[in-house]
Amino acid sequence: MPMPVVSLPVVQRWDCHSCGECCRSYAVRVTAVEKARLEAQGWDTRPDFDGLPAVVADGGPGQFRLNQRPDGSCVFLGPGNRCRVHAAFGAAAKPMSCRIYPFVLVPAGDHWRVGLRFACPSAVGDRGRPLGDHAADLRDYAALLEASTGVTLTAGGQSAPAPPLQPGHAVPWADLVRFAQSLAGQVADDTGPLDYRLRQVLAVSELCQKSRFDAISGARLGEFLTVITAAVAEDVPLAAAAVPRPGWLGRTVFRQVAAIYSRKDAGTHAGVAARGRGTRTRAAWRFAVGRGAVPKLHGLIPPEATFEAAEVPQPLSADADALLTRFYRLKIESLQFCGPTNFGRPFWAGLDALVLTYPVIRWLGRVLAAGGTRTPDDALKLAVQAVDDGFGFNTLLSTRRQAWGVRTLSERGELAKLVAWYGR
């Protein structure tokens, strides 16, 4: 029995506008079946392919990806930023990864929840139809994922077990969704600036991690979350200036994480890290020191960018606040921050990792606006794209060292300080 796809209450729009950004940014992996189908279409015999194979080996035996041209773009990217496969044979002939992007479908017990990758410019720009209008396509994508991953309903009407709240403590899917809905409601409540709302989310997380929910479930859990949400709203300082500055450890760990999110190794916006290990080592040293010019780890970082300038406060405009509110609501409501869509992270650890992207986005937005090359709002949009390009996908973020770093920031109160500091 196929699982239904649930439309989330957050208002978010998307349609493809053929910008070609995804076709210039990713090395798309394909299965052996997809490889055979593409090769049977005879692309390498066409004049505009110059003898380039459609698919090349990628890693170990049985691993393949779509070929790329010298500029980093997909070999199938054609005139008008249109996919040649789509134009010749229809959408169903494309690899599954290309068909589903930028949607992220998250199994949540007896249904799929819909996430979205804000690495896509149309997602950041909120351009297109409401996500609910894509219901037919999303059902097709869910069927594809069920066929390829084996995720199906059990006799009890549930899919895989829910991610634990934290190691050794799990709750049913329905209660996990209640936690997510409550947290998303905090983000959506515009009674204060976004950094204040995210610091409330962290305060609720801290309280919940000290509690057990074996006997608190269903409606009782909803009541519990209502009470503690109201309590932290009074305890968390409204003004970012009332929160102490991050300490040395917080700033050091933060810059290391910011370096990973800022890094682009493939595609037309590849930065200096793609040039070799020596360049990466020098860039890592510069981030560790945190002074002077910001290494051009992403091709869009302007030469005028400095670490010092990135610390200067830059208030959010109303449009930027609305963008980030959408971003965090959708990530939380879709459960895209924990479980299989974020390297198997438990619920609270995944939430900490998600909230850490806020100071990274604010920092990177200032970096990308350096020298007046872009407006603050345009730079922030690019920062959201760059950060969400990696969140849950960049394997550098999946290591034990990264898990330790995020856990340390959370346990020592540095994460809330970073949110306030870069929320100024």
Number of structural domains: 2
Multimerization status = single chain
Helix and strand composition category: mainly alpha
Largest sheet: 3 strands, mixed
C-alpha Rg (nearest Å): 22 Å
* Tally of strands: 8
Kindly, what is the distance between the CA atoms of the first and last residues, rounded to a whole number of angstroms? 49 Å
Average predicted local confidence, pLDDT? 92
Spatial strand order of the main sheet: 1-7-6
> Spans with pLDDT under 50 lasting ≥5 residues?
none
Query: Which geometry do the CA atoms define?
Result: globular
Order of helices and strands: EEEHEEHHEEHEHHHHHHHHHHH
Quickly count the helices: 15
Determine the strand fraction and express it as a percent band.
Answer: 5-15%
Helix content range? 40-55%
